Amino acid sequence: MASTQPQMYGQPSSDPAAELQRQMATAAAQQAAQQGAQVASQKAKHGFYEIKAYIQENPGSVKVMCFLVGLTLLVFSILGVINPFAVFGTPKEYLANVYNIIFSVIICICEGKEDWMRSCGDLQGKLFQRCFFLATQTGRALFYFYVGSMTILLLPSGFIWTLIYIILGSCLCLLSLLMLFFAHCGRCRSNYGQMGGSSGQL
């Protein structure tokens, strides 16, 4: 009688064709994942560059004024929250100062130097990506006008503090109107640019 060899179970099959197919499928999946990541990265960069190209800059003097007013508002809003001089007494006034802290930081980011913002994690680019209306002069102007009018109406107790808040709010409102003027008056805007170019050549 012919002896039958025992059949072994549990051993992996050594089919070279199946192994080759598995390797090819794994390589194809990895390549597809890499290509997808590259495409997504390129689209994100392309979208960022489009937004950056569309950003409407204010004239240099207006940018400086907006930044300084925003920075000053930030300082006084922090003092208003701490309230060392007891000039704010209602929860509404505290909340308004908290909002002003956030708004003044946004103003400083919008009008700050691009090099500074890049060194801080590109805050300006990220802000303009998520809040695109701030990348336009009209959007920023309307935002500044809202913050300025809210600051004027805060009216803390004490003549000096009231005067400070009225001045800060009025400056923001005037700067916002000036931004709208430059944004929608093309002739004046071009003349301003020519004046800036000629002054730079002197």
3D structure, described in words:
With 202 residues, the protein is mainly α. The protein has a domain at 54-188. Helices cover 77% and strands 0% of the residues. The protein is built from eight helices and no strands. Helix 2 (60-82) packs antiparallel against helix 7 and helix 3 runs antiparallel to helix 6. The radius of gyration is 30 Å and the shape is elongated. 19% of the residues are buried. The chain crosses the membrane at residues 64-88, 94-110, 131-153, 159-182. Keywords: Membrane, Transmembrane, Transmembrane helix. It comes from Cladocopium goreaui. This is Vesicle transport protein.
Question: What characteristics describe this protein?
Answer:
single chain; 202 residues; mainly alpha; 8 helices; elongated; disordered C terminus
Short description:
With 202 residues, the chain is mostly helical. The chain contains eight helices and no strands. α6 runs antiparallel to α7.
End-to-end distance: 113 Å
Classification by helices and strands: mainly alpha
What amount of the residues lies in strands? under 5%
Radius of gyration: 30 Å
The major pleated sheet works out as: none
Order of H and E elements: HHHHHHHH
Shape: elongated
Mean pLDDT: 77
Which stretches are low in confidence, meaning pLDDT under 50 for 5 or more residues running? Answer: 46-55, 198-202
**What is the number of strand segments?**
0
Helical residue percent band? over 70%
Number of helices: 8
